[in-house]
Design goal:
Layout lengths: L52 H18 L6 E6 L1 H13 L5 E5 L2 H13 L5 E4 L16 E5 L1 E2 L4 E2 L14 E4 L16 E5 L10 E6 L1 H9 L13 E2 L2 E2 L14 H16 L3 H20 L4 E3 L11 E6 L4 H13 L16 E4 L6 H20 L1
Helix pairs in contact: 1-5, 6-8, 7-8
C-alpha cells in the first residue's frame, strides 16, 4: 500500500466533505441513466392500447434498439415478456426443457433457483454442478450433450463466466444463459448462446416487471419440434398450431405491458446509442469496475468475493469486509443510507455477509471514486457504535 492510501479505517472518523452526486448503487433496479427525468419520456403511447398502431410501433422500436445496441444477428429473435428476467428464464425452461438431459450450473442464488425449478417443479433430475460463492466450477468438464443452464454474470456472487470459449460450437444441447446483469455490459458471443434472458432494470437502469427473451435458431427449432409433457400457463406459450408465435418477437406481447416502462427503456436505449452503443456502455462499466477495484486495493479491510479477476463481475461487484457478520453489514449500509452517501449496498441476503456495489453503465465513475472515503467512514463508525 502507498503512503497516500487509507491504511486504517478507524482513523476515518470525520465525515467526508464530498458525497456521490447520485448515490444509487443498487444491483436492481439500478441507477437511472445520467440526465434521466420523467418529463423527458415520450408519452404519446400512454393511455393507449398496446395493440394500437402507436403501441405496436413503440414496442417494435424498443426491440429494434436492443438489436442495434447488442449487435444481435438477424438469426436471433427478441421478445418482451412478463415477469422480469425470472419470468423470461422460466418461460424458456418450461417450454424447451425435457427433450434431452439437463445440466444446471449454480454458483449463486439465482442459479440455485433454476436448480430448484428443474428438480422440484419440472421433475427433470438434472445433473447439478455447484461451486461456492466467489468461485466457478470447472467449465471444461460440462457435458454438452445436455441442455445447460447457467448465469453468465452472477448478480449475487459477483462471479461471471470468463467468456464463451467453454461452450462448444458443435454442442448437442442448448445453452441457456441467465444474462440479466451481463447484457449491455459485455460483448457476448451470440453464436454460443441459444437462449438468453435479461431485464431492463439492470445495465439499462430501466423499470422492473418486464423481461427480455432472446432466442437463437436452435432454440426456435426446439420450440417448434418439441412439446413438453407438462401443461403450460398462457404467459409461457410461444408456439401456436406448431409454429412459433412470431408476433411475440414483433412487439405483440403475450400480456399487457406497461407502456410507461417501455418508454423508460427506450430512453435508456437512446442514451446508450448516444454513447456509441454497446462499446460505450462497456467502457463505462469497465471504468467503474476499475475505480472500485482501486478503492479495494487501497484498503486492507476490503476484498473481492471473487478473488480471481478473470471471473469477477464488472457490474454487480461483491466485496468482503474484514470481520463482518450480517448485523455489521446491516449497520454499515444503514449508516451510508442515512447520510445519503450510498443506497442499497448490502450484499444479497443469501450471499456471505459483505457489500455489493453496482458498477454498470448508468453509474458515473466520479460517484464510485467519491464512495471510497464514505466506505472508510462507515466502517469506522460501524465498528465504534
Amino acid at each position: 500500500m502507498t503512503d497516500s492510501a487509507v491504511t486504517d479505517a478507524t482513523a476515518a472518523s470525520a465525515k467526508p466533505a464530498t458525497k456521490p452526486a447520485r448515490p444509487y448503487f443498487s444491483s436492481g433496479p439500478c441507477a437511472k441513466p445520467p440526465g434521466w427525468d420523467a418529463s423527458k419520456l415520450v408519452t404519446e403511447s400512454l393511455g393507449r392500447s398496446h395493440r394500437s398502431k402507436i403501441g405496436k410501433v413503440r414496442l417494435q422500436y424498443a426491440i429494434d434498439l436492443m438489436r442495434e445496441m447488442l449487435k444481435l444477428p438477424d438469426t436471433h429473435r427478441i421478445g418482451i415478456v412478463p415477469g422480469s428476467d425470472t419470468g423470461a428464464f422460466e418461460m424458456a425452461m418450461w417450454t424447451m426443457l425435457g427433450a434431452r438431459g439437463v445440466t444446471t450450473l449454480a454458483w449463486e442464488s439465482f442459479g440455485e433457483g433454476w436448480v430448484t425449478d428443474a428438480v422440484k417443479q419440472l421433475k427433470l433430475e438434472p445433473n447439478v454442478v455447484r461451486a461456492d460463492y466467489g468461485q466457478l466450477p470447472d467449465l471444461d468438464k460440462i457435458d454438452w450433450s445436455d441442455d445447460v443452464l447457467f448465469t453468465w454474470n452472477g448478480t449475487t456472487s459477483g462471479v461471471r463466466v470468463p467468456d464463451g470459449e467453454w461452450i462448444p460450437a458443435d454442442r448437442e444441447g442448448l445453452s441457456f444463459a441467465d444474462a440479466t446483469s451481463a447484457v449491455f455490459a459485455y460483448d457476448l458471443p451470440w453464436d454460443k448462446i441459444d437462449v438468453a434472458t435479461f431485464s431492463w432494470q439492470k445495465v439499462l437502469g430501466g423499470e422492473g416487471g418486464h423481461g427480455v427473451l432472446i432466442l437463437g435458431p436452435r432454440a426456435v427449432e426446439r420450440l417448434t419440434e418439441y412439446t413438453p409433457a407438462w401443461p403450460l400457463p398462457k404467459v409461457f406459450r410461444l408456439v401456436s398450431k406448431g409454429a412459433l408465435a412470431e408476433g411475440v418477437f414483433k412487439g405483440e406481447t403475450i400480456n399487457t405491458p406497461s407502456m410507461l416502462a417501455v418508454e423508460d427503456a427506450i430512453f435508456a436505449l437512446e442514451w446508450a446509442r448516444g454513447l456509441g452503443g454497446l462499446h460505450g456502455l462497456i467502457a463505462r462499466s469497465d471504468a467503474n469496475a476499475e475505480a472500485l477495484n482501486k478503492i479495494v486495493g487501497e484498503r486492507d479491510w476490503l476484498g473481492h468475493l471473487a478473488v480471481d479477476k478473470g471471473i469477477r463481475s464488472k457490474t454487480s461487484v461483491c466485496l468482503t469486509v474484514e470481520g463482518a457478520d450480517e448485523a455489521f453489514i446491516k449497520k454499515f449500509a444503514s449508516l451510508l443510507e442515512k447520510e445519503e452517501a450510498a443506497y442499497d449496498v448490502a450484499g444479497y441476503r443469501d450471499a456471505p455477509p459483505g457489500l455489493r456495489i453496482w458498477c454498470g453503465a448508468t453509474v458515473d465513475t466520479a460517484d464510485i471514486v467519491a464512495l471510497g472515503p464514505w466506505l472508510d467512514w462507515a466502517y469506522s463508525a460501524a465498528r465504534t457504535s
